[in-house]
Specification:
- 26% of the residues are buried.
- The longest helix is centred in the C-terminal third of the chain and has 14 residues.
- A 4-stranded parallel β-sheet has the order 1-2-3-4.
- It is 52% helix and 12% strand.
- The protein is built from 10 helices and 4 strands, in the order ααβαβαβαβααααα.
- The protein is of the alpha/beta class and 187 residues long.
- Strand 1, helix 3 and strand 2 form a beta-alpha-beta unit.
């Protein structure tokens, strides 16, 4: 409710008190973003995120969490969460993050990024110079049309170029690709 006071562009479709209510809240509605304000990244939450990904693959998910642990943070990012914030985040920052997420980008607060990147990255994937350039443009938050224009290629060619990047990074979407690339030190 506080987010509505910060920005008039935000419409709240439902406020739920538990994971069970969440499914009912999004059924029959088409929210752009689900904002989940939870205590921790526990297995129950991870299961809910996994179910949302399976049933509503285009739904963007933003998590606001009291306690962020490294393994839970990595798991929800692998599942394609679009935003991860500590519950002490500034409301204006959260409202801005919703706008960024709505545009198709991923936002991780500095407080949340610590646990994500605290462990070694593991082997670095081998990407070509062209793939790295695409990845860096993705990281800037550019949309496919903007990236294609900068590279002087068609959007369909760009989409074909994205497939091997996702494959090499073992990612399913842009969010998980950017997470894997950052973790591997490519960005």
């Amino acid at each position: 409710m506080l987010l509505r006071q910060v920005s008039s562009n935000i419409s709240v479709l439902a406020v739920v008190r538990g994971f069970e209510e969440l499914g009912h809240a999004v059924n029959g509605r088409a929210p752009d973003i689900a904002v989940l304000d939870v205590r921790s990244l526990d297995p129950a939450l991870i299961q809910v995120v996994r179910r949302l990904r399976e049933t509503r693959p285009t739904l963007k998910i933003m998590l606001v969490v009291d306690a962020i642990d490294a393994s839970g943070a990595r798991e929800v990012m692998r599942l394609g969460v679009s935003g991860l914030f500590s519950s002490d985040a500034d409301l204006h920052g959260l409202a801005r993050a919703l706008q960024v997420i709505s545009a198709g980008d991923v936002v991780i607060s500095s407080t949340a990024s610590g646990p994500l990147f605290s462990e070694p990255a593991g082997p670095i994937p081998s990407l070509t110079a062209h793939e790295l350039r695409i990845l860096r443009l993705l990281a800037k938050g550019l949309r496919n049309e903007e990236i294609a224009r900068q590279l002087a290629i068609s959007t369909s060619t760009l989409k074909r170029n994205l497939r091997p990047i996702l494959s090499k990074l073992h990612a399913t979407d842009r969010a998980s690709a950017l997470f894997a690339a950052t973790k591997a030190g490519l960005l």
